[in-house]
Protein: Thiazole tautomerase (Transcriptional regulator TenI)
Amino acid sequence: MTKQLHLISTGKQPVEQFASICAHVHPYVDAIHVREKRKTAREVSAFVAALIGNGVPPQKIIINDRVDVAVVYGVKGVQLAYHSLSVSQVKRHFPRLAVGCSVHSLDEAKEAAKSGADFCIYGHIFLTTSKSGMAPRGVDSLQAIVASVNIPVIAIGGIHAGNAAQVLQAGADGIAVMSAVFLARDPVAEAKKLAHIVKQTWPMNGGEEC
Ligand SMILES: Cc1nc(C(=O)O)sc1CCOP(=O)(O)O
Structure:
């Protein structure tokens, strides 16, 4: 599988601003996550409608937690957390949805893989103001997870063009970024830069050809 670039909404941008950035950056990314944790289903729905209205293909849209909104819009999938419906519930009732799982330890990653998740997002790798007050988990722990689970592992947290290569070299199947693109002076230039790094030829499994 080629490595992937995911963008995650900040939860702080007005819908118009978010959608207008995404209208320009979507060709460079593999997935755009609508992660608006404090918003109602109706408000999340407005974000998804704005993305689609601005030309983002539904097959590039992943919705955090809200399985209902994902089904209504026929988007690619959902990103589940510990408080969400379980992976197996979603897979059983909505087999067409891709299911990602947010994980923060090796055990959680193994559990996600066992329960049938299509991919997991692991973090946070580096210090980030988007998750302040918590120690980063580091690249070594990422490497251990990549070596132990058989689903794609997307790395998140404090990743930008200056350290993305380190994470991909460690074996991550992709990166997910929030501030690196959405808080950039030029989000399109930043997304292009990250896409260029992600789409390079990376050795398998963090350096060992297999
Ligand atoms: C949304 C999110 N989840 C994380 C996790 O560790 O699960 S870290 C994170 C924030 C990522 O933001 P930035 O790219 O600005 O560092």
